[in-house]
């Protein structure tokens, strides 16, 4: 369910706008009278043009009062437009305020306008600084006895150009993914992040509709329809994981197709209906949110059911009344972007890439990927220092036959001078080319990494698509963040950390840059990852060193990975380790996807047997790694 539009940034923005900006309002002042909004901090009600109405509770942040953006549409009939890059426009008469979530920087009629605080999304609702936004629409703002009073003269805004324009079309669908649904006159197509989804809202902003397709869940050679109870179980589980309350649910079998639906309420009290269908080798999700619904029974009215029940997992290309969104989504190019307004990141992606829902990276099926990371720069460091650190790290961690430095250059990217570093490496199965874009300013760093198979014909053209479109905003970083960690390549690799185990009676020093995830040092197994491999310590009870070795060697003759990879195990060398008798073994794994080498040290003390294992890709088994491992082994001590 990772492709539900609700979990993508732009869709959250769309839902948030729909559910906070336009409500049916009674008692609106006459055209000649002033419009008025009265609010109190901490109160869940406001007086809007003389009528008391429920609102999202205003709150104070660093002395700035934040309110839901929708109050300005409810009270003053201001108009809201969705824009790209998590930005929105608030229009009131001849005034247009353009804002971006996470940034104080805004534009009023094209001129820079600084907000008192950055707009933020809180529990799915867009909250904005009340005084700044009131000022932007030309309203008067005053505080009387703790109550904020905002007044403005009525303004007319031509919203006709924002209404749906689908003359002669009574249905809408997607020929690529084979679905269709009724297209009421009041429905507006908001666009989509990809051809796999489409979003709509009605002209009054009362409801929101999203249709999303996951082409990977059901394969074409499977049955075209799943059991409706299984579909329902999936929906209920997803809602529970999302913290939503399911208030109605049903599995439906019909001649038009099987499906399941739930009606759920989120933590903000917003009700929505979600349906799931399968067919054509795809899974379809229909999400319908209603800002005015107060009960699950509101979803049973004829307008809602006629719309949702009209959904079909088919598309009749000969029907001239259907508007096909497939060509719109493909030509818009919006599915091939990676953007994060909070970090000031935007780029266009090559056509075969898909952006991640949760991180600033994107990937393609051939293994190519691009990512953007943000770091703090070490004090006094320069781009040249950073480049030397990166090139030095690759030289230290790849053998010369597995790594080639292809050079670097400086180029104007995203409005400033950047360093581009290019290299290629091979873990043992194929060569990979990596392009690294380094930018640094005011103590912050952007690191853009594009990695792709070296034999990909379009790699240089794809990199050009990325760099030509790349936009990075250091001002946003300064506005939203304090200090970040330094990048991986700039870490001090001389630092070590001592770990001890009272239960297993040992201590060991490992490099701090080795990754240790949730290790319990009192357990029988601890694990560290390093470049190209891992190091671990395991303990178990055996009666003698000889028996421990016999049992351990038997694992290399089994049917597991060791057997599959054609392991070549040495006879072993007797030695002394940590003051006790020990054996060391080496093993080669030539048939692994990335051929690697293992080094194993086995010894006993009392009833405990210790096995220290280091496994590393042959490409990364460099003198630097061997020296680092030698220090770790030399630091190991048995304690009483």
The dominant shape is globular
The counted number of beta strands is 45
Which ranges are low-confidence, i.e. pLDDT below 50, for 5 or more consecutive residues?
Answer: 1-32, 157-165, 217-224, 329-335
The first-to-last residue Cα distance is 52 Å
Helix content: 10-25%
> What count of helical segments does DSSP give?
12
Mean pLDDT: 83
Strand content: 35-45%
Rg of Cα set = 30 Å
Class computed from helices, strands and strand pairing: alpha+beta
Largest sheet: 8 strands, antiparallel
Keywords: Signal
Signal peptide: 1-24
Domain Copper amine oxidase-like N-terminal: 48-144
Protein name: Stalk domain-containing protein
Description:
- The chain is an alpha+beta fold.
- The chain has twelve helices and 45 strands.
- Helix 1 (9-21) packs parallel to helix 2.
- The longest helix has 15 residues, at 383-397.
- The relative contact order is 0.08.
Quick structural overview:
The chain is about 20% helix and about 40% strand. With about 650 residues, it is α+β, with helices and mostly antiparallel strands. Strands 37, 38, 39, 40, 41, 42, 43 and 44 form an eight-stranded antiparallel sheet that branches. A seven-stranded antiparallel sheet has the order 17-18-19-23-22-21-20, with helices on one face. It has a seven-stranded antiparallel sheet with strand order 27-28-29-33-32-31-30, with helices on both faces.
């Amino acid at each position: 369910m990772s492709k539900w539009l609700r979990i993508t940034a732009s869709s959250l923005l769309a839902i948030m706008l729909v559910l906070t900006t336009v409500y049916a309002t009674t008692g609106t002042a006459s055209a000649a009278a002033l419009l008025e909004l009265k609010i109190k901090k901490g109160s869940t009600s406001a007086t809007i043009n003389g009528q008391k109405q429920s609102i999202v509770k205003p709150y104070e942040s660093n002395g700035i009062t934040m309110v839901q953006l929708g109050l300005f549409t409810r009270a003053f009939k201001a108009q809201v437009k969705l824009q790209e890059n998590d930005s929105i426009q608030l229009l009131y008469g001849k005034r247009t305020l353009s804002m971006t979530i996470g940034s104080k920087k805004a534009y009023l009629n094209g001129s820079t306008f600084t907000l008192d605080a950055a707009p933020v999304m809180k529990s799915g609702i867009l909250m904005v600084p009340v005084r700044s936004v009131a000022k932007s629409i030309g309203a008067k703002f005053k505080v009387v006895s703790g109550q904020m009073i905002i007044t403005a003269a009525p303004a007319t805004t031509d919203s006709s150009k924002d209404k749906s324009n689908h003359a002669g079309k009574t249905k809408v669908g997607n020929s690529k993914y084979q679905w269709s649904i009724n297209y009421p006159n009041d429905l507006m197509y908001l666009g989509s992040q990809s051809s796999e989804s489409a979003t709509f809202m009605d002209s009054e902003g009362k409801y929101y509709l999203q249709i999303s397709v996951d082409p990977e869940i059901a394969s074409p050679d499977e049955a075209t329809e799943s059991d409706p109870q299984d579909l329902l179980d999936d929906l209920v589980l997803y809602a529970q994981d999302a913290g939503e309350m399911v208030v109605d649910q049903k599995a439906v079998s019909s001649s038009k197709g099987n499906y399941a639906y739930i009606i759920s309420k989120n933590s903000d009290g917003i009700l929505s209906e979600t349906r799931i269908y399968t067919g054509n080798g795809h899974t379809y999700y229909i999400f319908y949110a209603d800002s005015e619904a107060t009960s699950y029974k509101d979803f049973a009215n004829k307008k809602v059911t006629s719309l949702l029940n009209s959904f079909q997992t088919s598309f009749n290309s000969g029907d001239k009344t259907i508007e096909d969104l497939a060509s719109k989504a493909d030509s818009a190019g919006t599915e091939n972007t990676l953007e994060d307004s909070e970090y000031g990141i935007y780029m266009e992606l090559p056509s075969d890439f898909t952006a991640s829902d949760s991180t600033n990276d994107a990937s393609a099926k051939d293994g190519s990927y691009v990512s953007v990371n943000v770091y703090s720069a070490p004090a006094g460091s320069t781009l040249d220092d950073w480049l030397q650190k990166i090139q030095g790290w690759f030289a230290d961690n790849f053998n010369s036959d597995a790594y080639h430095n292809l050079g670097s250059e400086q180029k104007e990217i995203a409005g400033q001078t950047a360093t581009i570093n290019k290299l290629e490496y091979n873990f043992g199965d194929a060569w990979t080319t990596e392009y690294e874009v380094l930018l640094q300013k005011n103590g912050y760093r952007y690191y853009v990494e594009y990695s792709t198979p070296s034999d990909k014909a379009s790699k240089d053209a794809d990199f050009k698509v990325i760099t030509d479109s790349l936009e990075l905003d250091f001002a946003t970083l300064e506005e939203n963040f304090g200090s970040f960690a330094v990048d991986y390549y700039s870490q001090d690799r001389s630092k070590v950390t001592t770990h001890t185990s009272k239960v297993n009676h040992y201590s060991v020093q490992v490099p701090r840059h080795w990754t240790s995830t949730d290790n319990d040092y009192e357990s029988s197994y601890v694990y560290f990852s390093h470049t190209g491999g891992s190091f671990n310590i395991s303990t178990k009870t055996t009666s003698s060193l000889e028996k421990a070795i016999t049992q351990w060697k038997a694992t290399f003759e089994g049917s597991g990975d060791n057997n599959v990879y054609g392991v070549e195990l040495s006879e072993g060398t007797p030695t002394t380790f940590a003051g006790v008798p020990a054996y060391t073994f080496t093993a080669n794994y030539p048939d692994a996807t990335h051929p690697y080498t293992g080094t194993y040290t086995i010894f006993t003390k009392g009833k405990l047997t210790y096995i220290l294992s280091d496994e590393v890709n042959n490409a990364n088994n460099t003198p630097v790694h061997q020296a680092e491992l030698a220090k770790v082994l030399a630091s190991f001590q048995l304690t009483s």
